[in-house]
Amino acid sequence: MSTEGPGSTDSRAAEPEQPTGPEDEVIGVRRGMFGISGSGDTSGYGRLVHRVALPGGSAPPYGSYFDTVVDLLRAALASGPAFDTAIEKVVVDRGELTLHVDRDQLVAVARVLRDDPGLRFELCLGVNGVHYPDESGRELRAVYHLNSITHGRRLRLEVSAPDTDPHIPSLYRVYPTCDWHERETYDFFGILFDGHPSLTRITMPDDWRGHPQRKDYPLGGIPVEYKGARIPPPDERRAYS
Predict the structure, then answer these.
(1) Before 61, cis peptide (omega within 30)?
(2) pLDDT > 70: what percent of the chain?
(3) How confident is the model at residue 229 (pLDDT cuts 50, 70, 90)?
(4) Residues 6+ apart with CB under 8 A from 192
(5) Which of 24, 47, 84, 138 is the most exposed place for a label (fewest CB within 10 A)?
(6) How far lies 130's CA from each of 66, 135, 189, in Å?
C-alpha cells in the first residue's frame, strides 16, 4: 500500500499492493480512500492503490469443528444434490467457516444443515448483501449467518448472482427469521429473493429509485436540509487544492 501527501511532487505511479495470500482472488483495484472521483482529493490519500482480494478456497483439514461439519454435509447430500455440485468452495478465513453455495441448490443445502441430527443449524441470525461491481457475473452476494444451538457452532452460506439476473431463492420457508432480513437486503442491494412472501422495501420509500448500498450508487445524491441551510451533495461541494 502506498500513499502520497497532497504536496508531493513525485510523479511515479503508485504500485498496487500484492494479494495477502497465493490463493486469494483479486476482483478489482481500488484507488483513493473513499472511491470519490471528479470532485478533487482533499484527503491526501488520492494516490492510494489497493487490490481488492477475496480469500480463495481452503484445502482440508480445516481445523476446529469445520471438518466435522463439511464431512457430515457431504454425507447428507449424497442422497440429494452432490456436494461438489452444491458447494462451489469451502473457505476458512480468520477462524470462520464459509460455504459458497450454488444458488440453485441453496434451499436444499439449508434444509440439510437445519434437519440433519449431526448438523442442526436451527437458526439463521441474519442476511447480508454484498456488491462487487468489478466481479463480472458474480456482482451480487447474499450471506446467511447460521447458528447451531444444539452443537454450539456457526457457519456462513454465501450465494452469488449476476447483476443482470439478481435472483436468489428465498430461505424464508426454511428459516422464517429471514423474512425482514431478506427484505432489507432487497431494499439496499436489489437482490430478488424468489419465493419470499412479501418482498417489499423495508427502509426506503416504495417509490425510491435504486439501491443505496450498492457501490455504484451515488454518494449523497440529494441535497440535505438542516435548520434552513442547504448542504450540497459531495459531488457539488467545493474542492480545495
Answers:
(1) yes
(2) 79
(3) low
(4) 166, 167, 168, 186, 199
(5) 84
(6) 24, 12, 7
pLDDT at 220: 62
pTM confidence score: 0.78
Maximum average pLDDT range among 5-9, 88-92, 131-135: 88-92
CA max distance for the chain: 65
How many other C-beta atoms can be found within 10 angstroms of the C-beta atom of residue 140?
26
Candidates 66, 72, 83, 28; CA nearest to 50 is 28
Q: What b-and-e string marks burial along 33-60, b requiring 16 or more CB atoms within 10 Å of the CB?
A: eeebeeeebeeeebbbbbbbbbbeebee
Q: Is the per-residue pLDDT at 159 higher than 60?
A: yes
CA-CA-CA-CA dihedral for 91, 96, 97, 99, to nearest 10: -60
Range 25-32 contact pairs with CB under 8 angstroms and sequence separation of 24 or more: 25/53, 25/54, 25/55, 25/56, 26/51, 26/52, 26/53, 27/52, 27/53, 27/54, 27/132, 27/134, 27/135, 28/52, 28/132, 28/133, 28/134, 28/135, 29/134
Structure-model confidence comparison of residues 153 and 33, the more confident one: 153
Q: Where are the alpha helices (DSSP H) in 77-214?
A: 83-86, 106-115, 178-189
What is the C-alpha separation between 32 and 4, in angstroms, rounded?
Answer: 10
Tell me the mean pLDDT in the region 212-226: 72
Q: Exposed/middle/buried for 89, CB within 10 Å: 0-12, 13-18, 19+?
A: middle
Quote the cell numbers at residue 137: 457475473
